[in-house]
Amino acid sequence: MKILILRFSSIGDIVLTTPVIRAVKTQVDGAQVHFATKRQFKVILQNNPYVDAVHVLDGSLRTLLTELRAEKFDFIIDLHHNLRTRIIKTALQVKSATFNKLNVEKWLLVNLKINRLPSVHIVDRYLAAAAALGVKADALGLDYFIPEADEVPLEWLPDGFQKEYVAFAIGAQHTTKKLPVGRIIELCDKINKPVVLLGGKEDAAVGEQVESFFKKSNEADLEEGLTRMNKKATVYNACGKFNLNQSASMVRQARYVFTHDTGLMHIAAAFKKEIFSIWGNTVPAFGMYPYRTRFTILENNKVNCRPCSKIGHARCPQGHFKCMNDIVFDFYLP
């Protein structure tokens, strides 16, 4: 049976589809699993042993449709549910199932602060779309496969980071899902261990500000005082220095992972890391909190304007950004 799974973006959403991929491949007799996504996200899937082929959308939907028609699929699992996937399902004319995006329920929560969302993780809603094939959740969690060439040796890290470190994914697609730089500094100080900052090139400047703040002083008296207070926070800015798989390798080798509501959070969950998940304008109630791993939610529930979006904004619509500025960093690391 040849099965096509559709999910075009983005990093975290695609990682969250991996239990469906695995369940279909291992539970459906003779399943050939194909996956269609945008070209920039192919790297997430091309090393997955449960995926037989990846088809990429690279500008022209017509070109992709021609490629997909030639495959003669038996079933389509639509885990994106947008205009493009509707066009594909209509064009291929095969049996299909589509996951419920709960757009009405999300609208009610964002706009009227009425919570009608079911207490169901999005992975389980993805799996419900595949139930027509007889598949069930296998309790193994998320998958992420790093090719050997992208494994990062700890010897690449500066002295002081090679024995143990905490990974902090400081990036996110939208500003309102990210802590301001001053609060990132405050959190690193609270972590009080060697911290590796992870993110893309767009996060490098913020990472540099944070790293510079924690650089060792040449003043001996100050260093002695920090030692007496047991202050051990040091920061290495790795933002923009690693590709996605290499960043995943850094996450895999970390002792703990701090992260905004972003793709590296779900990659950390795939490696069963202990996660400290930081939420700003979005909320865990949307169903995208860390899946099947130990986690702590860091959020400010004392603002009545939250959530202000199901995705995010370039700036706080209210101007105060209290969801991040007033968040309490309440955690303990042994």
β-sheet strand percentage: 15-25%
Q: What would the CATH topology of the largest domain be? A: Rossmann fold
Strand pairing plus helix content: what structural class?
alpha/beta
What is the residue-averaged pLDDT?
A: 95
Shape: globular
How do the strands line up in the largest sheet?
8-7-6-9-10-11
Radius of gyration: 21 Å
Number of strands: 11
What's the number of structural domains?
2
Can you name the CATH architecture of the largest domain?
Answer: 3-Layer(aba) Sandwich
- Can you summarize the main beta sheet? 6 strands, parallel
- The CATH superfamily title of the largest domain: Glycogen Phosphorylase B
Low-confidence stretches: none
Distance between the termini: 50 Å
Helicity, in percent?
A: 25-40%
CATH class of the largest domain: Alpha Beta
How many helices? The count is 13
Order of helices and strands: EHHEHEHEHEHHEHEHHEHEHEEH
Summary of the model, kept short:
This protein has helices spanning 11-15, 18-27, 42-45, 61-71, 83-92, 103-112, 122-129, 181-191, 204-213, 220-228, 244-253, 263-270, 322-325, and strands at 2-6, 32-38, 53-57, 75-78, 95-98, 166-169, 194-198, 234-237, 256-260, 275-278, 295-298. The chain is α/β, with parallel strands linked by helices and 334 residues long. A 6-stranded parallel β-sheet has the order 8-7-6-9-10-11. A 5-stranded parallel β-sheet has the order 3-2-1-4-5.
